[in-house]
Write the C-alpha cells for this entry.
Amino acid sequence: MKALKVLATLVVPAVVLMACSSTPDKPASTTATSAAKSADDKDATAKPSADSGKAATTPIAAPAESKPETKTAKDAAAALKNVIYFDYDKSEIKAEFRDVVSAHAAFLAKNATSTVTIEGHCDERGTREYNIALGDRRANAVRQMLMLQGVSSKQISTISYGEERPVAMGHDEASWSQNRRAVFIYVNK
Amino acid sequence: MNKFARYLLAVTLIFVSLAARAALTIEITEGVEGALPVAVVPFLFDAPQGAPSPPENVSAVVAADLQRSGRFKLLAERDILSRPFEPAGINFRDWRMLGMDNIVIGKIKPIATGFDIQFYVFDVIKGTQIKAFTVQSKPSELRAVAHQISDIIYEALTGERGAFSTRVAYVTVHQRASGERSFALNVADADGENPREILNSPTELLSPAWSPDGRKIAYSRFVKDHFVLYAQDIAAGTPEVLASYPGHNGAPAWSPDGKRIALVLSKLKITDAPNYDIYVLDVQSKELTRITENWANETEPTWSPDGKYIAYVSDRGGKPQIYRRAVTGGKEERVTFEGTENLRPIYSPNGKMLATVQGNSGEYRIVVLDLETGQQRVVSEGTLDESPSFAPNGSMILFAATYKNVQMLSAVSVDGRVKQRIPESSGSVREPAWSPF
C-alpha cells in the first residue's frame, strides 16, 4: 500500500503539473508550482542522509529525493499537488484529497509567514452567478479544513472564479471533471 | 415533422450585417403553425428617374421584423405580382386568392429633410383599411422609423405592443493568439444590426441588466480578486461603482421604478465568513437592506413587475430551487417543484410567468412556469441553455446556448413554438439582456 502511495505521489503531481502549466491565462499557478518545486528541491538537498538511509528498504526504484518515508520529503512531495477535484454540484472534500490538504496545512502551520490563496472553480453547467457561489463553497471547504489543522485564517484567502476560468474546453465529463477544482496558489514562499 | 420542414424551407431568413464589425445574424429554425399570412408589398419609391435610393429598404426591414416575430407568415417577394402603393390600387380578390389575411402597402418619397413615408394596413378578407399613417424621417433615422412602422403594424394585427424598436445587450469573449481573453459588453438593435461595443474589459463581465429607463446597464466585473458591481451610462460611457464589498458583488436586478437594485453579496466585512444572500441597494443613497439571511446560499434575484416580490435561487434544500419573498419582508415561499434544479429565475413582463434554467440529469433547458396554475413548459432543447431574458412585450425569450461547440444566443417564443438561433460572427456570446421599451 505504501508502494502504491509512492507511485501515486510521483505520477499524479507530474500529470497535474502538466495540466497547470498548459493554462495560459493562469500564470500564478505556474509560479506556484515552480515555487513548490523549489521548496521540494530545497528539502531534498537539505536532508540527503535521511533519504539514502531509507533507500535500501523501499521496494520501488524511485528518485532519491521523493522517498516518502521521511516526513519532510513526504510533505514536500504532496505539496507539489496543488489542485484537488470535486464531484458534480458538490463542495465536499473527497477522502482521496485529504492528504493533499493536510500537506498544505502542515506547510502553512510550520511557515507562519506564508500565505495561500485558494481558488474555487466549477464546470460550465448551471448558471454563472450560481457557479460563483459554488466555487466559493469549494474554496471555503478547503479553507475550513486548513484552519481545523492549525492554519491561521490570516494565512488563507479565497477567490471564486465560478465557471469563468476552465482549464479544459470540452463539453463532456472528461473536461468538466478537470474544471471542478480548488487550486492552491502561493505568492510568496 | 413534414409540416415543420415545409415551414423551415418557407420561412428561413438570414440577415448578414454589412458592417465590418462583428454582428449577430438571426436564423429562424422553426416556424409556427397558425402564423397569420400577410404580404408586405415593396413600397413604391416615389421619385424622379435617377434620384438616389433611400439608405434603407423600409418595406424589407418591416417584412423581416414581422417574419422574425414568428407571428406572421410573410408572402415571398417573388410571389408578389401586383404592387399597389395606395388604397385605390388594391384588388382584394387577388390577395384573397393568394391566401392573405392582411396586406401592407406604402410609398416613400424624398423631401428636403429626408423622406416622407405613407403606409396602409388592410384586412383583405373584409376589404377594409385598418391603419393609415404618414411619417417623415431624416435619412439617418430611416431604419429606426422602419422598426416603428413594424411596431404599429404588429400592434394593429395582434393587439400586442411590438418590440422591434428595442435593443439587446450581450457579452462577447475574444481569445487572442497569445491565449489572453478580452470581454466586451455590446448593445445591438433587436434584429442584431448596428452592434456597438459599450465596454471592453481584460477580465470577466457577468450579468448585464438594463435599468427600466433603458439608459444604464448594471453588470458585474472581475477586479483584482473579486467581482465588483457597476452601472454604466450607455450614452455617456461612464461607469459607476454600485457595490464593492469584500467578497462577491453580483447578479443585479433593477426595481421596476429604477430606484433600487437587488443584488448578491457574500460578505459585508472582510472578516465575515462568506454567505451568499440577496440585498437591495438604494441606487442614490447606496443604503443596503437585507432580503435573505440564512446559512444556505441565495443568488440570482429577479424583481416582480409590480415591485412587490423578489424571486431568487436558494440551495437550502441541497439542490438549487427558486424561492420568493415580499420586498417588505415576511415568509419565504418555494416556487419551483419540478426538475432536479432550477436556476436564474426571470419574471415575465406581465408578472404571471417565471422563466428559469432547469437542470435534469445534468442537462439544462429554459422552462416557463405559469405562476397561477403551477404548470410549466420546456421551451428550449438544451443541453447547456442559460440566462433567459424576456422581450419587453413578453412574446419571446432570448437566451444563451451552446450549439456545435459554439456559444451563441438563441430566441424562442414564449409558447415554445418559434425557435431562432443567433450566431455572432467573431466570438463566443453569452449573457443576453433584452432592453425595456
